[in-house]
Structure formats: structure tokens, C-alpha cells
């Protein structure tokens, strides 16, 4: 056995340690809770010079998967990590990688698939990978996360398939445990062995074509080869487990059982629930009940023979699924367990039982006889959305499994709705309200918002705004109520309310995923007095365009009242990275709506990882500062200019430090959205928690960003650029370092060691501002 040392760490931390020890070449990634900590920990290691892993922060999981595939084709050792909708967003890439037989490893930190949005752990994401052609190892403990990350790469490169290591989000991923790791990295690398390529893609003297177009019979032959590779993995895994056991002292099998040998009732669970169920088994054994529990270490290849072997003596088998295959009358795990037992030579025994008579080998012969054992199989769906699983829950499940009158399939832990009707809020006694509802505020009507605070009209090819004073717009009722959960000093509600103060028409809001929607819509409450919908941040603009077009159609047909409704998509927290394609498509099509971006310079809702709008040199959870790294390595994205290139009628930048300019531009955007086409407005939005500054000082921080020209205020109206504020002419222009010094995330740039980075940033800021001024002075730009 190799020498090992103790770590007190979480599953994500142990995954990162294994990745570092293996010495991977590249990681393409996009932050998504709860897998993000893997990339964050690896970035710390990079910053400290402990790893030379190439880390590429993609603008979304789909691109991250593409980066990984390209690196694997190129012959690199490649790692990725994702969760939930990130997995689904990338899913079309996964059969490409298995079908062309390029190995890599991906950690899937299992989480609920939206919607509604939930970031807690269940297994609804990993089950989408069952048909992707990837072997899937499932770790139920922190120790297994480390061990399986090492085993999986050797498996991947031996059978030439990409492999998933899956484990429970927030349970296994975040809970710390004492576990062991190899002291020497060389021990890990020696176990895996050197990387071998049968057909090196970068061998220019022997060029190959990857991913050819195929018809029959070639395609079915390709799929058959993939099938054979999975069979090889099935045969190889016991040998890899044995070899790793000799190295580490930890012996694994495809299926693990606890007190299963004489158990009359067995629980079969996946992931972290297994350890909880073991405690329940001990309690019930003390009471004289013959109960056991089983879990799987491999989902693909599915361990059918091993499951049958462990369940052969049981009378009752309860398969508990942390997901549901809707309409199939069972979760995916239970369906596959039933199929495994049927495949073993079962005959149906009534509605709730199956008889295990023999275990059938691949050639159709009976490899083990297990006569006379009748097992009643039942399935419960439990623990969705991260609902806790306690010892007493396992005990109740056993009771349910042993009850002959309980159904074969049910949900466990569903909360019945209160049949009593809530009384209307006292302050709205005089208003008409739906029976059984409890409104905290009345919805806004057009009569209430059209107060004459602003007036827009087009003259000489440009929209002119009259009114729009702060006092006048203050009379506009807030669509976003004060009751929200944003951090003190957060710029999101400030900017959203400033935008809406200038818009007197009724509004419909779509928020992409991010802090803005999370802090305002925690079920069963909402902070909105107007229609609101959330969609994932890679597709918000497209969803809103669909809503808008249906509205216009219904108005035309007389199904809903006529009148201008302003449709507004609110995006931030990196949403215009992963969502840029959707936004550009919407702009190019020219739908009548507003795209509003609150730019807080990072992926804030996942804990502040770098986004493409993060300033160069800024510290974040994936751009740490250390002896080998100075923060984010590339310049911030110029989204207003990218959007302006689509030719939409109106683009503007705004800041809370210049409220009158903000309000007038918002009114212009509403005019164009109602009458012409897509408008885009971008605000610099403070995030004191992650900018690491003082909430009370945020307006001054925003003002300094404007005065140093990092965030210039301008508009592009029908293709013509107008500079709204020129700090040079006002005598207020300051060096960009003055702004950077106000925030903890960039305070390190004051040091002489980073003078070159500040110089580069200053030159880029000056170049962009000079180009803006040149455009503003040109009569056609």
C-alpha cells in the first residue's frame, strides 16, 4: 500500500485534489452551483503554483463541453465539472465525445433540474446521462469522490470512453469528512499510467478525420463498437477496483451492501442516503428486524447481475429514487432494477412481486441458481429538491415496503396543501381579490402608472424626452416592491427601479437566472406587482420575444385590450455571457422589447466567479491572486458595442450616479420598444459583497467608474453615437486606478508588482473612450 495522509475536506475539495495529483492538461468549465467549488479550488492551486492546469472559463456549459472535447481530440487529459441545467445545456456534446471515443472525466455534482429553479441536490440531472454512452461511477462518500476520480481516468483511457463521476450536491459535495489521499502524486500517476493515443490527431504526417458523416450500416457498427466498449468497461471495473484496493487499502465493488445477506427487506438507494440508511438498519436490527441496504457504485455499465446477487434472499425490495421518470410509474433506478431482476429469469408474482429464479449470463445460460425466492419490488420517489433524508425516513420506508397494502409506486414526503382559505390582506379590504389568495399589494394598472412624468416624441430622426425630473418620476408606483432579499447596497433593485420610473406603460418582466430573481421570488412570495417570468439565463431573450409576439397577436385578434405593453428582460450576474447568443438573435430579429443588463462584473449568484465583464486583474473565485496569477487575465467585454453591431434602433449605458440621464434613456428605450424594435440598456450595478467595498459608498464607486471612463455614458440611436457625459470636458477624469483602489477585489493592483496590468487596463480604457469620442464626432457613426 502507498503511504496516505488525512484530509478534512468536502467532496468538491477532494475532487480538486485528485485532479491536481493526476496532472490533467486542461479544464473547460462554467460555474454552476454546486459543482463550482471544484474549479475554484483548482484556480487557487494554479495561483499558488501548485498546478499548471490550463483552465478555460467558457461563456456557458455548452461551450465548456466543446472546449473539453476539442482538447481531448487534441490528445490532452481533460476534466470538466457541472450540475443540473448546465449538464442539460451541454448534453448534445456528450454523445459526440463517446461516439468518437475520446476519453475524459467529468464530475457531475447532482442537483435538481429546473424549473422551478432550485439549486439543491437530487438525481434528476444525472439520469439524463444514462443514454449518452459514458460510464457513470456514483460516489456516496467524500472518500469515494477522491478514489473514483482516480479510477475513472484509468477506465476512460483503457476503454476509450469519457467517464462521469457523480455525487450528491450539497450533501457529498459540501459536507467535510476525514478521508485519505496519497501523499505522493507519483503514486496516482503511476496507477493511471502514461497517456496513449492510437491515432494522434496532431500527427500531421498521418492526418485523420474525426466525426465523419455516417449512414447505415456504418452508424450501427459504430454504435455496436460503443456497446462493446461499455461491455469491456463492465468486465474491467472489478479488476480496476481490485488493483486500486491493493494500492489504497479501500476495496470497491460495483454494488455495495450492508447487512444484506440475511435481510428479508432491503432498501436500495443511490448516493449519500446510503450512509443514513445504514444507521436505520442498525436501529431496526436491534429491534430484531432483518433489514439491509444496498447502493450502486456504477450506473453505467448497469450492474444487473451484482444487484440480483445481493437481493436474492430478500422478500421485499424498496428502490428509492431521488428523481422520477414521469409517466413511467417509477424513477429510472427502480425501472432498471426491475429490468435486471426480470432479465435474471424472473416470473411475475402478482402486482407487486417478481420471482428471482436464476441469474442469466450474457450467453443465455444460468450462471447462478436462486430458486424459490420471491421479491416484492416497490418504488418511492423521495428527497427531491434537496429534501433531507433522515434515519426515521428510512425506517418509514421499510414499514411501507413491508405493508402488503401499500402501492408499488408513490411519492414520499409530499406536503399536502392547506385546504383553508387565507383571508385577504387587511390593507386591501376594499379591492376586488380572488378568493383564497393573500396579496401583499395590489397589481398596478395603466391608470396608476400613466402620470405624465415623462413624455417621448420623435423629432428630426431622434426621440426627445420632456419631463423626467426625479421628483416627477418618483410618483410612478414601484413595480418592484421593497420586500426583497437583496444584500445591503446591492445595485440590482436600485437600477431596476430607476429604469421603471421612466416607463409609464404597463410592463411585463422576464428575469434571467441570477441574484435579481433569486432575492425577489422566493416561493411562495414575490416582490413584483406586474407579470413576471423567470427563464434560464442562456435563453431569456428568446423566451421574452415569444411572450411579446403572442401578446401582439392577441391584441390584433381582440382577445386582450389594445395598448402599449413594454416587455423587459432583466439580466445580470454573467447572464449576458451564457445568454449572449439568445440576446443577439433577439436583437437581430428586432422584437419590440428592452434588454436591460445590470452589470455587476461577475457570476454573483454562484459566489463571484469571473465573467467576461469582470475587470482585467480583478480577484474572483476563479481568478485568484498568487505568485503565478494576478486575477482575471483578459479585458472586460464591451457588450453595448456588440449589441450595437446588430443595428437595433437604441443602445444606451446608464449609471445610478447620473439618475437624470438614466431616466431619460430608459424613457427612450421604452419608446423604441413600443414603436420600433429592440432596445438595449446597460447599467453598472454595485455588488458590495463581492466587490468587497462598503454598501453606503456604492454610488461614489459607480461615479468613479464613470469618471475614469471604464464605464462611459453614451447612446447609439439609429446607428448614431452620442456621448452623454465627457469627464474630460468636465475636468473630472481620473485614472482607472482611482476606481480600482475603492474595491477589495482590485485593491491589490495598487502594488508596484501589478503596475504593468494597470497600465494595460488604462490604455485599453483610454482606447475605447477615444474610439467612442471619434464615433460621436462622426456624422454617420
Describe the structure.
The protein is of the alpha/beta class and 781 residues long. It folds into three domains: 4-198 and 213-248, 3-Layer(aba) Sandwich (Rossmann fold), CATH 3.40.50; 255-411, 3-Layer(aba) Sandwich (Rossmann fold); 457-777, Thiamin diphosphate (ThDP)-binding fold, Pyr/PP domains (Rossmann fold, 3-Layer(aba) Sandwich). Helix content is 35%, strand content 19%. Strands 9, 10, 11, 13, 14, 15, 16 and 17 form an eight-stranded mixed β-sheet that branches. Helix 1 (11-22) packs across helix 7 (185-192), helix 3 (61-73) packs parallel to helix 5 and helix 15 crosses helix 21 (659-675). The N and C termini lie far apart (71 Å). The relative contact order is 0.07. Residues 346-353, 355-372 and 421-436 have low confidence and may be disordered. It holds the Pfam family POR_N.
Amino acid at each position: 500500500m502507498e503511504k496516505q495522509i488525512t484530509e478534512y475536506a468536502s467532496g468538491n475539495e477532494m475532487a480538486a485534489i485528485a485532479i491536481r495529483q493526476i496532472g490533467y492538461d486542461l479544464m473547460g468549465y462554467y460555474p454552476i452551483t454546486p459543482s463550482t467549488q471544484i474549479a475554484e479550488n483548482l484556480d487557487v492551486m494554479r495561483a499558488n503554483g501548485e498546478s499548471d492546469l490550463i483552465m478555460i472559463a467558457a461563456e456557458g456549459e455548452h461551450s465548456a463541453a466543446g472546449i473539453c472535447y476539442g482538447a481531448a481530440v487534441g490528445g490532452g487529459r481533460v476534466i470538466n465539472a457541472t450540475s443540473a441545467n448546465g449538464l442539460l445545456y451541454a448534453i448534445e456534446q456528450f454523445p459526440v465525445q463517446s461516439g468518437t471515443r475520446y476519453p475524459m472525466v467529468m464530475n457531475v455534482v447532482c442537483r435538481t433540474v429546473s424549473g422551478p429553479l432550485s439549486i439543491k441536490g437530487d438525481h434528476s440531472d444525472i439520469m439524463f446521462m444514462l443514454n449518452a454512452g459514458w460510464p457513470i461511477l456514483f460516489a456516496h462518500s467524500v472518500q469515494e469522490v477522491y478514489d473514483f476520480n482516480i479510477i475513472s481516468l484509468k477506465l476512460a483511457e483503457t476503454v476509450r470512453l469519457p467517464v462521469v463521476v457523480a455525487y450528491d450536491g450539497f450533501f457529498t459535495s459540501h459536507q467535510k469528512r476525514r478521508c485519505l489521499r496519497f501523499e505522493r502524486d507519483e503514486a496516482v500517476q503511476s496507477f493511471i499510467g502514461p497517456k496513449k493515443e492510437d491515432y494522434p490527431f496532431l500527427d500531421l504526417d498521418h492526418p485523420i478525420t474525426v466525426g465523419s458523416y455516417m449512414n447505415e450500416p456504418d452508424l450501427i457498427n459504430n454504435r455496436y463498437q460503443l456497446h462493446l466498449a461499455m461491455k469491456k468497461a463492465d468486465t474491467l471495473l472489478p479488476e480496476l477496483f481490485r488493483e486500486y484496493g491493493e494500492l489504497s487499502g479501500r476495496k470497491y465493488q460495483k454494488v455495495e451492501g450492508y447487512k444484506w445477506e440475511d435481510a428479508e427487506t432491503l432498501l436500495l438507494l443511490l448516493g449519500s442516503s446510503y450512509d443514513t440508511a445504514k444507521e436505520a438498519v442498525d436501529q431496526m436490527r436491534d429491534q430484531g428486524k432483518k433489514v439491509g441496504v444496498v447502493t450502486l457504485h456504477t450506473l453505467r455499465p448497469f450492474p444487473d447481475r451484482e444487484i440480483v446477487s445481493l437481493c436474492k434472499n430478500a422478500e421485499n425490495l424498496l428502490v428509492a429514487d431521488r428523481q422520477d421518470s414521469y409517466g413511467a410509474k417509477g424513477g429510472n433506478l427502480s425501472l432498471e432494477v426491475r429490468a435486471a431482476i426480470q432479465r435474471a429469469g424472473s416470473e411475475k408474482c402478482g402486482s407487486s412481486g417478481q420471482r428471482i429464479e436464476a441469474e442469466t449470463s450474457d450467453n443465455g445460460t444460468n450462471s447462478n441458481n436462486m430458486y424459490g425466492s420471491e421479491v416484492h419490488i416497490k418504488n418511492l420517489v423521495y428527497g427531491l429538491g434537496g429534501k433531507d433524508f433522515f434515519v426515521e425516513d428510512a425506517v418509514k420506508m421499510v414499514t411501507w415496503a413491508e405493508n402488503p397494502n401499500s402501492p408499488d409506486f408513490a411519492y414520499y414526503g409530499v406536503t399536502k396543501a392547506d385546504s383553508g382559505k387565507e383571508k385577504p390582506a387587511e390593507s386591501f379590504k376594499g379591492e376586488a381579490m380572488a378568493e383564497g389568495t393573500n396579496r401583499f399589494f395590489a397589481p398596478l394598472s395603466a391608470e396608476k402608472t400613466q402620470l405624465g412624468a415623462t413624455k417621448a416624441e420623435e423629432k428630426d430622426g431622434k426621440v426627445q424626452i420632456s419631463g423626467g425630473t426625479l421628483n416627477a418620476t418618483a410618483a410612478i408606483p414601484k413595480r418592484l416592491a421593497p420586500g426583497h432579499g437583496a444584500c445591503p447596497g446591492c445595485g440590482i433593485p436600485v437600477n431596476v427601479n430607476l429604469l421603471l420610473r421612466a416607463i409609464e406603460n404597463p410592463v411585463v418582466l422576464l428575469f434571467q437566472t441570477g441574484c435579481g430573481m433569486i432575492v425577489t421570488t422566493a416561493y411562495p412570495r414575490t416582490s413584483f406587482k406586474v407579470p413576471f417570468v423567470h427563464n434560464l439565463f442562456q435563453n431569456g431573450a428568446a423566451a421574452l420575444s415569444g411572450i411579446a409576439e403572442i401578446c401582439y397577436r392577441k391584441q390584433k385578434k381582440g382577445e386582450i385590450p389594445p395598448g402599449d405593453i413594454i416587455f423587459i428582460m432583466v439580466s445580470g450576474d454573467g447572464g449576458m455571457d451564457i445568454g449572449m447568443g439568445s440576446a443577439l438573435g433577439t436583437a437581430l430579429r428586432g422584437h419590440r422589447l428592452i434588454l436591460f443588463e445590470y452589470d455587476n462584473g461577475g457570476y454573483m449568484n454562484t459566489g463571484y466567479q469571473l465573467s467576461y465583464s469582470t475587470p482585467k486583474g480583478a480577484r474572483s473565485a476563479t481568478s485568484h491572486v498568487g505568485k503565478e496569477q494576478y486575477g482575471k487575465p483578459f479585458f472586460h467585454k464591451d457588450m453595448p458595442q456588440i449589441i450595437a453591431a446588430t443595428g437595433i434602433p437604441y443602445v444606451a449605458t446608464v449609471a445610478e450616479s447620473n439618475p437624470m440621464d438614466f431616466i431619460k434613456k430608459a424613457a427612450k428605450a421604452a419608446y423604441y420598444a413600443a414603436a420600433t424594435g429592440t432596445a438595449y440598456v446597460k447599467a453598472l450595478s454595485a455588488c458590495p459583497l463581492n466587490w468587497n467595498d462598503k454598501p453606503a459608498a456604492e454610488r461614489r464607486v459607480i461615479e468613479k467608474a464613470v469618471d475614469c471612463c471604464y464605464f462611459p455614458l453614451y447612446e447609439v440611436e439609429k446607428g448614431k453615437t452620442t456621448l452623454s457625459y465627457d469627464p474630460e470636458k468636465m475636468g473630472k477624469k481620473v485614472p482607472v486606478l482611482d476606481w480600482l483602489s475603492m474595491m477589495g477585489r482590485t485593491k491589490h493592483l495598487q502594488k508596484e508588482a501589478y503596475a504593468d496590468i494597470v497600465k494595460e487596463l488604462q490604455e485599453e480604457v483610454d482606447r475605447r473612450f477615444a474610439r467612442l469620442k471619434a464615433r460621436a464626432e462622426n456624422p454617420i457613426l
